[in-house]
Amino acid sequence: MSNLILEVNDLTKKFGDLVAVNSISFSVQAGEIFGLVGPNGAGKTTTVKMLTTLLPPTSGFASVAGFDVTHHARDVRRVIGYVPQLLSADGSLTGYENLLIFAKLYDIPSKEREKLVRDSLHFMGLSDSADKLVRSYSGGMIRRLEIAQAVLHKPRVLYLDEPTVGLDPVAREAVWEYVGTLAKGGTTIVITTHYMEEADAMCGRVAIMNHGKIAAMGSPADLKASIPQNGEAATLNKVFEYYVGDSLEPSDAEGSKKDFRDVSRTRRTARRLG
Amino acid sequence: MSQEQGVLPAGLDNRAAGYQTSLLGGIANFFTKTLVIAELEVRKLRHDYTELFTRAAQPALWMLVFGEVFTRVRAIPTGKFRYIDFMAPGILAQSVLFIAIFYGIAIIWERDLGIVHKFLASPTPRTALVLGKALSAGIRAVSQAVIIYALSLLLGVRLSWSPLSILGIIIVIVIGAALFSTFSLIIACIVKTRERFMGIGQVLTMPLFLASNAIYPISIMPEWLKVIAHVNPLTYEVDALRAMMLVGGTSLYGIPFDFAALILSMIILVAIAAKLYPTVAR
User: Fold this and answer.
1) Does the first or last residue of chain B, that is N or C, have fewer Cβ atoms within 10 Å of its Cβ?
2) How many domains does chain A have?
């Protein structure tokens, strides 16, 4: 039996007339790094909010480690870690205190707390700043602190929403390095990003989202191989353009866009059947 | 998949069991988590306590200017008390109210920063998150008592120093701040943006303050205002404070009734807020 940790079936979220997430389905294996990629407004954050129990789905089903996000929200919350899109560590507390409060909220026994927090800070390279107020941290340091905060309780699935936005290349690389280490340790990672190169380099599989739907899904290599090769090296960006049409830029030919969609739908169906 | 149902990773299951199997465990967990949220506030205050002093300006203005003038003109019938004695507990309640109302906007800030999201994605009971915030407001509000007591000493207000009164006053202030901060949180959950909250916050605080017995007795109010004052929890907060803070102070409604009114309002508001709080993250 495959070891599925995350199962999503026809998950939909509507805000009034706006369909933010439109009947998406996917599943993630334990230990995988799974990427949700796509432009801003594609529905990535809404999807993550539903999977982290922050937002009730309009319809459809999602489960984490066997727990339904709608009916067993509390159980889901115990087995997940979540790093929101914004830099959300508390600036008026020290790095140590930020972690300590979460260690308490996640029922880490008092005997283990201090050591666990110090070890996590050390692992994230923040030992020297542990007792400084977080408002003096750089963006990269805050992000690392937040990841430490989100994995203190050893979650089975870690959600990272656009973790590298606004970081300089060095800090960005550091974040990916830690994410890679966590995944090797067995944590399943679900990450959203609109940087296609990052998804390409780091994710085992990606789902390309656009207008609330999954346009294509697979390993970066398979996705790149699935589009017509025209001599130059395929990139996820090209994959995106191929499956989504030219919607990265405003389209002037609605007809051709529709054709693209039809083609991609046929292809997806073919792949599912094959 | 079916055999995977309900399986927790090793090391987590003990902890989980500790807080879900029994009602008692659930209650213990609820109070522990409430205190953790309040601890967060204490730690913040320890890093930056200047705010506690900057908040002294407003009550000082009320007592030194408004209070001194009205003590001279004797326009307001305050029985055996001088006006300044009468108003000191009212101004204490007022500054607690103003601190508490600030909490709604803090929630909107925390939402904009993503802090709320992280707390909501944790297994912390929603009611504990709300009550912990309320308690935080209470802790902050107690510092106001120190300021008002200092001003009162300066102005010769005859303060009661019995330890029981002081304990009672601290409890009333904590409940009062908890109640109004939760009220503010509910407003924040409904209006959702800082701009709208600013407008509504202003519109609500002054009526709450003026439609109470804080700076004049209810007996001199017109009938319609009396009705409003009697459903305003601030009235019972002031009544209890006045009875305990002043030498020879008496309660109009009885201290047990004041406590009951305050606690009941708080429970109702916390219950509503716990339902609404998760919606700020959506």
Assistant:
1) N
2) 1
